[in-house]
Structures are given as C-alpha cells and as structure tokens.
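Feature request, filed as a ticket because there's no other form

It would be nice if the structure record came with a short human-readable summary line next to the tokens. Right now we just get the raw output. Example of a typical job, pasted below so the devs can see what we mean:
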Amino acid sequence: MNVLFVVAEFAPLATSGGLGDATAGIARALTRLELDVTIVMPRYQFLRDLGEARPGVEPAQALYEHEVHGLRVWLVDDPESFDRPGIYGPEPGTAYEDEWRRWGRFCQVAAALAEDFDVVHLHDAQAASTALMTSTPSILTLHNAAYPVMGPIEEAVEMFGEESRDLLEWYGQANFLKAGILAASQVTTVSLGYARQIAEDPEVSSGLNEQLANLMYPVIGIMNGIDIRRFNPETDEDIPERYGPDDLAPRQAARQALAALTGLDETGVIFGMVGRMTGQKGLALLDPIIEGLVENGFRLVAVGNGDDDDRVDGWVARYPQAVWHEPYTVELARLVWAGGDSFLMPSKFEPGGLGNLYAMRYGAPPVVRFTGGLADTVIDAEASAESANGFGFDEYTSEALAGAVHRAMAVYRNNPERWAELQRVGMTTDWGWDPAAARYQWVYNRVLERNK
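Raw output as currently delivered:
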C-alpha cells in the first residue's frame, strides 16, 4: 500500500511541539508494517539546503526530494508561501496573516500528488483542505482541533472551486478544518478520550463538535505513542548519564545539571513543563496558588512559548529561584524529562498528550488533569498499587491542581520507594508507535474497502 502523508511538521526537519514527532513516529511505524510511506511538507526557509530538485506541481516552483530515516520526503518549494522565518508565523506562537493562502496553495500541490497513491493521510488543519481536491481516499487526523485555518470565503472558493463553498463556509468565512472534516473519507484523532470530547465540547473542537458528531463514519480515536528507540534514557547521549528503570541513581546527574542551568533552588521539588505556553495548558490554574506552592518547595522549569508567555514570565519575575522559562529546544526538553522530578500538565484539554509520555519514559511521574489522552495514559497513585504511574485530578480548578501537586510532592519527599515504583512503571510501559500504526493500517483498509 502506498500512503502519502501531508504534514506541516515532520521531525527532525520541522517541529514546533508534538506534531512533528507524532507524524514521524506514525510514518516510521507504518514502514515496519511494510507500507510505502511518502511525506510531503513545505520547503521552509530553514530547509532550503536540503533535497534534490525535481519538477514542480502548480503552484509550487519545484519539489525537492530528501530522505529521513529511510522515508522519502518531498519538500514543496513555494517561496511566495514559505520562504520566510518560522513554520506558522515569524515568532513562536504567532501566525502569518495569509496563513489560509499559504496552506491552501500547499494543499493544491498535495492533492495533485495524491492521485498517484492508494491513500492520503492528512494531519491537522494545515493539510485538511487537500481532501477537497483529491479523489484518493483520505484520512484526516486531528492532532489538535482547537486550531482551525480561517480565510476569506470568496477567495477560498476561487482557490478550491464553487462546489467547495458549502463545505468551507463558516459564519461568513472559510474554515479549512471544517471543509477537511466533511470532505475526508474518515476522521481520526489521537486518543479515545479526545474523540469523545471533540464531538461534545465546542471549546475543544473550535465549534465544530456538531459536524464531528454527525459524520456518517464516527471519529476513530487512536492513542498517540512516542519513538521509544530515539527517546530512551538507557542510550540517550544528550543527557548527562545514562540510566534505566532498574538503576535510577545516575538520573541524579541530570537533575543536578538542570538545577545548575536554571539556577533554581534544588532543595525543592522540580516540575517540568514542555510545550506551547497557551491557555489550553491550564496555566491560569496556577496563578491563584503558585505562591503557596512555591513556599512549599514547588519549582517549575517551563520550556516553550505561546500567548501565555507573559503569565509565565511574571512568575519568573516574582519567584526567580523557583520558576525558569526558556524557548523550546530538543536538547532542553530532554534535560527537563530526564532531570525533572515530576512533569506538570494541568491541561484544560489535551488531545493525545506526548509530554506526559516522554516524561514517564525518562522517569518523571506526571501530574495531569484527567482529560483527553491524559486520562487514557496516566493512572493515579491512589487508584492502583501496581499500575500507577503518576497523579491526576478531574475538576478544572486551582484547588484540584494544588491537591494533586501537594500529593506528588509528599510522595516524592516521604516515600522514595513508592516514587521509584511510579518511575519504573512509567519507564517500562510500551509507549511505542507500533500499536497505533496497526490501527491506522486497519483504518486505511477499511476506507479502501468502502471505496471499491
């Protein structure tokens, strides 16, 4: 089976968070099932030194063929759209004003290429409108439905054709995500919990819950994974010392390195956060309680940027020995997973959750709100004696978050054997992509059968 992946991000070429790792993880796992996977993505300004030129497809000037991890990657050379800094905007957390045009042009190219494939697999809103223009069976995976691509309706209809108007129209604008959801052969998402949420909650699905709930073929939830070969503390050369679930002592070197880098008071309990600093991540819950948490030894290393940067930087200003904030880098993220005592994800909603999986893989039991994929992967220490791997809370309140954080800190300080068991469970669970890939292969076959 020949599968075309249409993506905005693909690790290690282009990442701004978890999407690039997810698309790469799924693609590589599919190849282990002997599927032939090709990636098509933009030739961003920072990728202009890569690939061998081949003829282009309008409106692109050319395609540049590259190889990553044995996968063929086609880089769409469209300088008008992508010869500029950043993936989505000039700075992390921003978006270009013409994002609808950029991604619409990209999807025109992807749709033309898709005709030579058995299945086209689209990832998130940036790729969604490909489904409007191809006869190839299409699967649209929603990694995060809260970020649609919006544009002017008349210009979008001119780009995609008059027959696309009803699919695109959204309160007088064009909604590329809506159009992709309605045009795709099958919609999937990245956890069972999130599949339920997006069909019920308009805030989680950017108002598209009714469209998702009324699809002829219901949304299929397929749990995210991580690349357990690349992210392995027993072999990772980017952390100070290697360690495993049966020998956690060398992990202390990463903790010391993280404390030295950040200047935080290492007598406290160090929590990590890696990802976009946005309202989705539940940062507002910390505002009323952070002073009390800091007084009790709470320390926070926040890695990433977003529209909640000012809030986080305000904590840094008030508590310079307790909170530290820097932009995302792969190396810094790995140090946080390996050196943090715990990992904090009090998300308002969370489609799949990758940060919690990386953290558990590296021995940092997470504290999460039980929502979406977090509810599918984190088992509270009080819920199970044998399978617990972290701490969680249900209600989206500051009080519930404070309770979970205090419970985690108490176990860390007072019951090191129990803490080590939480670490071992998280580190030894198979969080790999192979189970997800098998499910995606099943979806592909199901869609192909429908289209016979």
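Something like this underneath would help us a lot:
The first strand starts at residue 2 and ends at 6.
The mean pLDDT is 95.
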